[in-house]
Amino acid sequence: MTNVVFFKDIRFLHKALSYFPLQQFAGKKVPLKLHMGEKNNQYFVKPKLAKRVVDELKKVNADPFLFDTTVAYHGLRHTKEGYLDLAKLHGFTKENVGCNVVIDDTGVITVVEGRRFEVADRLKEATHIVALSHVKGHIQSGMGGAIKNFGMGGVTKETKTKIHDGSSPVYTKDACTYCGVCAEVCPFHVINVSEDSWEYNENGCFGCGVCVDACKNKAIKNEDADIQFLLACSAKACIQDKTVLYLNELKRIARGCDCDPNAGPIVCPDIGYLLSDDPVAIDKASLDFINRVKENVFLKVNKVNPMKQIKYGEEIGLGSSSYELIEL
Ligand code: SF4
Ligand code: SF4
Fold first, then answer.
1. Residue 244, ligand 1, Cβ within 6 A
2. In the prediction, which pLDDT does 224 show?
3. Dihedral (C-alpha) 16, 19, 21, 23: value to the nearest 10 degrees?
4. CA end-to-end span of the chain
5. In angstroms, what is the span from residue 57 Cα to ligand 1's centroid?
6. CA-CA distance, 228 to 234, in Å (whole number)?
7. Ligand 2 midpoint to CA 183 (Å)
8. Which of 85, 38, 88 is nearest to 261 (CA)?
């Protein structure tokens, strides 16, 4: 069974790493995959934590660099140059973290479950990767952790757009009874149903799939598939056949994602850190910890069940949701 190590204090990171064969990272160029925060977001992983991980990798003679990809929406992170400026603004400099910061804008097509995902060049090249993921809520997938760090964060902006578009709802008039359930459950109130009409505002839709799950008549389907399924597939495209260690930070657990300048409020008190070599196990353990402190909090605040990405991840062989917890 997969080990997931829990520790409250980051000073136990070195001890936690001793449960995994970190020596295998010696002599390797190692992307440290993380989200360096959207402008005005306050909750993202901080440079001090990144430096701790960098220092541990250097101790085994690995050659780490901080790594992320450009995003599809407008703003500084849309381009490599803009993202590097923002990273600097957030304190991710060579001086602060002890290694280079690299942003990719291009990738290599990788097929998983019959779908094509453009995996960022640096991830595709790497044989050894460390993921540093901030665990928080997410409007589309309920939560963001290790799976989402790669599923959305490890691919090009073209693939990010494709994942978003692939989860758009498609309506079939003939199957609809105008019951209005979809309109009631839509977290963004973009569906309007009357006696004989169904409309939705495509621009306000986040592709969360809540309406798809709620419609008992199957009058709404995803354009391609559930976003959480696509995220799990995309994550697998990024990490398959590689040696990857995952560090999840369960602190500053906000309602929304690090991409959101207004991600607050904090919905769960700080818990600590989890370390594993399995992205599904570590996200499941993260969710279990959070649910013990604040039961179903992500489902309550975002109306999207975060377990789906874990279930899909397990189904496609991304990892296992069973784990052995080691508490330091
Ligand atoms: S839940 Fe389904 S059947 Fe009911 S109004 Fe919405 S689309 Fe139509
Ligand atoms: S996918 Fe989500 S946001 Fe879009 S219409 Fe359905 S419930 Fe609303």
1. no
2. 95
3. 50
4. 18
5. 52
6. 10
7. 9
8. 38
Atom of ligand 2 nearest to the CA of 185: 7
Q: Is the pLDDT of residue 10 over 90?
A: yes
3-state secondary structure 63-96: EEEEEEECCCCCCHHHCHHHHHHHHHHCCCCHHH
Angle at 133 between CA 11 and CA 52, to 5 degrees: 30
The best mutation among 184, 206, 227 to test binding of ligand 2, ranked by most ligand atoms within 8 Å of the C-beta, falls on 206
Alpha-carbon distances of 234 from 139, 152, 195, 205, 208, rounded to whole Å: 18, 7, 40, 21, 17
Q: How far is the CA of 190 from the centre of ligand 1 (A)?
A: 13
Ligand 2 atom 3: residue of nearest CA: 205
Is 0.70 topped by the overall pTM?
A: yes
156: which 2 tokens? Answer: 């090009």
Cβ of 179 less than 6 Å from ligand 1: yes
What pLDDT band is residue 197 in, cutting at 50, 70 and 90? Answer: very high
Residues 6 or more apart from 95 whose CB is under 8 A from it? none
| Structure tokens, 163 | 């994942």
Mean pLDDT, residues 275-296 taken together:
98
* β-pair type (2-7, 323-327): parallel
- Cis omega (within 30 of 0) for bond into 64: no
32-45 residues labelled b (16+ CB within 10 A) or e (exposed): bbbbbbbeebebbb
Distances (CA, A) of 167 to 13, 156, 179, 223: 37, 17, 22, 6
Is residue 5 helix, strand or coil?
strand
Distance of CA 150 to CAs 145, 167, 182, 244, 322, Å? 9, 17, 30, 11, 20
- Whether residue 112 contacts residue 150, with contact meaning beta carbons closer than 8 Å, is answered with no
The number of residues making up the chain comes to: 328
